[in-house]
Amino acid sequence: MDAPPTSSARRKVARISTAGKATEPSPDAVLIRRTLAEIGPVADKVTSYFYALVFTGHPELRAMFPAAMDVQRDRLLKALLTAAEHIDDPDVLLPYLRRLGTGHRKYGTLPQHYPAVGEALIHALTRYAERSWGPETEAAWVRAYTSISQIMIDAAAEDELKSPAWWHAEVVSHDLRTPDIAVLTVRPDQPYPFLAGQYTSLETPWWPRVWRHYSFASAPRQDGLLSFHVKAVPAGWVSNALVRRARPGDVLRLGPPAGSMVVDHSTDNGMLCLAGGTGIAPIKALIEDVAGHGERRPVEVFFGARSDSDLYDKDTLLGLQRSHPWLSVRPVVGDGLAGQLPQAIGEHGPWNSYDAFISGPPGMIRSGVDALKRIGIPGERIRHDALEELAGVAG
Ligand SMILES: NC(=O)C1=CN([C@@H]2O[C@H](COP(=O)(O)OP(=O)(O)OC[C@H]3O[C@@H](n4cnc5c(N)ncnc54)[C@H](O)[C@@H]3O)[C@@H](O)[C@H]2O)C=CC1
């Protein structure tokens, strides 16, 4: 996914970030952050105004967004503001924007749509960042948006040469494991290359243009089938449709794979995996990946669930444990994985030569990262999906 940047993208970021090489932020970054600080408290108003400007100025763009603009509502604006905030940091910015650019292909985004969005952004900021706004600030934002949009456009154009904008995928099985959790297996209409531990975006036929992220629950398979573990969450458009409505024969759409919570096969470090609820799905994929590579590195899984019935995939995991002597799976049942986890991990180990993988609700990921750092695993050896992406997982 995060292929090396094109030379034109590299040039652009190099230009905007020259001053950022030092520890001091560049003058543009200072102005941009001042604007962001000013609009922070009125973010909701900025968001409504921004979308109203986009849709009234360019009604043809409305059809690219879902009918109900709840979660989707502030995604685009938030992504642009996040990118602007990191304008000095090409290491973060480039992979982020390239993913955003390729991910936007499934919405039907074209290069000619970007100026309309840029104009709305500048107008919304002019209105709501009155105190910090002026010609210099405006010029900094125009430069930032020009670079941001060009990187996204370039990434989409490059991706177009090698991948479809989306895949159709037919549901081939639907297994209701608990009243709220289903395991779905789908067959994509074209080969779908991905790595174990990654996730995709998924749209159901019942709620057009409402996309949610789901991790693959298996490593890539010979037969090309993909599987997902889905929990229906209250008011979740996509999750309820997938759990309660989807049946074999229904056709979903999938976006491109994303995520960097993948196995580094260049080491034989042990792997410490923490999973909460349906967060076990990508961990199961990682286990299959290690097994498929014929490796014998220790893999230790702590699988947290609120109750025994939420350990819906325990039998599969215990089956894997029986076949693989290097694998150990420990269910941790209770309300506070956060409270129990440090103790559970502390009873085992030492973990200093392990890489860590965390998957589950955002709160669990946050407290899991803290717990792992406390037992001495450095941040760069802890992998998890981006929390802002997970905000769109549930639902
Ligand atoms: N790649 C990933 O990271 C994936 C993440 N998910 C996310 O996993 C979640 C699964 O939901 P459920 O099965 O309902 O999980 P859940 O709410 O039942 O929680 C699962 C476990 O996490 C613990 N936990 C929950 N919140 C916590 C917090 N704030 N601090 C510490 N521990 C906490 C619970 O005690 C329980 O042991 C969803 O939010 C889904 O979006 C699902 C699949 C993949």
From TrEMBL:
Instruction: Indicate the segments forming the Globin domain, all copies.
Output: 23-157
Protein family: Belongs to the globin family. In the C-terminal section; belongs to the flavoprotein pyridine nucleotide cytochrome reductase family.
Show the InterPro entries listed in the entry.
Answer: Cbr1-like_FAD-bd_dom, FAD-bd_FR_type, Flavoprot_Pyr_Nucl_cyt_Rdtase, FNR_nucleotide-bd, Globin, Globin-like_sf, Globin/Proto, MRET
What's the EC number here? Answer: 1.14.12.17
| Cofactor(s), by name | FAD; heme b
- Whether Ribonucleoprotein counts among this entry's keywords is no
Q: Can you state which reaction this protein catalyses?
A: 2 nitric oxide + NADH + 2 O2 = 2 nitrate + NAD(+) + H(+); 2 nitric oxide + NADPH + 2 O2 = 2 nitrate + NADP(+) + H(+)
Q: For the region Disordered, give the residue spans.
A: 1-21
The protein's superkingdom reads Bacteria
Quote the CDD domains the UniProt record gives.
Mb-like_oxidoreductase, O2ase_reductase_like
Q: What is this protein called?
A: nitric oxide dioxygenase
Q: Which residues form the FAD-binding FR-type domain?
A: 164-264
> What Gene3D superfamilies is this protein classified in?
Globins, Nucleotide-binding domain of ferredoxin-NADP reductase (FNR) module, Translation factors
**UniProt cross-references to PANTHER family, sorted A to Z:** NADH OXIDOREDUCTASE HCR, PROTEIN RFBI
Task: Point out the coiled-coil segments of this chain.
Answer: none
